[in-house]
Amino acid sequence: MNTWDLRRRTSRWAILCVALAAQSGLSACTGFSKDGGFAAVAASAQSRLDKNVNWPRTDAEAAKSAAEVTQLLSQPLGADDAVQVALLNNRALRSSFQNLQISEADLVQSGRLPNPRFDFSHASADGQLDIVETLSFNVLSLLTLPYAHDIEKQRFAQTQNAVFLDIAQLAAQTREAYFAAVAARQSLQYMQQVRAAAETGAVLAQRMLTAGNWNGLDQAREQVFYADAARNLTRAEIADATARERLLRLLGLSGETDSAGSVQLAPALPDLPPSIEELPDVERTVLQNRVDLQLMRQNIDALARRLKLTQATRFVNVLDLGPSWVKQGTHDAPYERGYAVVLEVPIFDGGAARLKRSNALYNQALDRFAQAAIDARSQVRQAYAVYRASFELARQQRDVVVPLRKSVAEQNLLRYNASLISIFELLTDAREQISSVDDYIATLRDFWLAKSRLDAALLGNPTP
Where are the alpha helices (DSSP H) in 290-401? Predict the structure, then answer.
């Protein structure tokens, strides 16, 4: 057989296989999209998070994102600004975008026709030839091609939701890290004031002890308080550095970028809102908006399709069909034309194990989804309870405790001016007033953290 004959016969069977694929329901091969499915993810981020997400794949796009990040960092960052920087600059998030291309590659591959296989065998002895040429096609793959393609479509949609969930979780983590960093810096500033007041008291106590106007016990108490204040200041410095480094990591910034503290944060946490939001309809909101539950539902659908495919191919898992040419005898002997069929005979394995495994995976996914829905509702209710309680604590600290401390400080200042109390009592009261403000910062931070976690619980799986 010459090369032209082989090509002609191959092309005929290729045309036949394409026709068979068309009859099986695959109208056209799927090609790669221009954006790799990223546009849908970016649209979800814009509509549900009100944030822009870019996936730079060229130098020009990377330069544009870098310029936007630089512009945001040129001014004190608010919480929303910090989230936007993280979504544009975090490299771990960009790596998750590659999952879109991986999944799209699988989707495109699932729409490709399987390549034919050419088998050739040759044997000769005493001028006698035995040649067998077979061109076979995987007919079973052609028949199941539409089902496999649908499964990959579902997986691609799952990947898009999974990437959006990564975006939402990074946004929640960055927001929490931002509030923690701002609160740590505010707390550090107040601890510096407490230490300064304690140092003043310790110096005065030492002078009075030296002059014989004070006893050693009172002087030791002031020294102990000064030592405690210095230790608390060191702890506040550690907390400030830790919180800032965590925020910088989420922003995708290196230590060199912030070597001189160039990344500026807002000077203080946002004030408490006038009121808190009402708890939404948990049943409707959770089941409709939770991205992690949507992912699980998509997984259930994919497993259901795979279960049907497993049932359809339970007994016949291999089916190859194609033309065959055989020559036996001398070189001048003609080729015998025929066909070859490769069929798996289900004698030892009837596919029961594969079917049972598919059934178990499907039922497992159903049970996991049911429990996840219960957990999601509970997470939202719990997050709302913490959010509400945090608001009440912060409001009580702001409206009751801090004003009372301020009033006491003003009265004690009048008493000191009237020589009714000593300077040490005035310093003690000043330290307590500063501590009450620092406590308010902590409660205000807890409120904003609780608000962030409630938003995360409504949107998807909460961050740890």
Answer: 291-312, 352-396
Q: Which span out of 7-21, 50-64, 123-137, 276-290 was modeled with the highest average pLDDT?
A: 50-64
Which residue's entry shows tokens 């995987």?
A: 138
The set of residues, in sequence order, having a beta carbon less than 8 Å from that of 53 and lying 6+ positions away, is 41, 42, 45, 46, 87, 88, 167
What's the rounded Cα separation, in Å, for the pair 95 and 164? Answer: 13
pTM score, two decimals? 0.80
Cβ neighbour number for residue 382 with a 10 Å cutoff: 14
Give the C-alpha separation, 392 to 385, whole Å.
11
Residue 323 main-chain phi, psi, to 5 deg: -75, 155
Q: Do domains 1-269+317-350 and 271-314+353-458 have the same CATH topology?
A: yes
Superfamily of domain 271-314+353-458: Outer membrane efflux proteins (OEP) (1.20.1600.10)
Most confidently modeled of 64-68, 343-347, 426-430?
64-68
pLDDT of amino acid 4 = 43
Using the predicted structure, report yes or no on whether residue 80 has a pLDDT greater than 50: yes
Strand partners, 397: none
- Please tell me the predicted confidence (pLDDT) of residue 172: 93
Q: What angle do CA 262, 263, 267 make, to 5 degrees?
A: 110
User: Under CATH, which number does the domain 1-269+317-350 receive?
Assistant: 1.20.1600.10
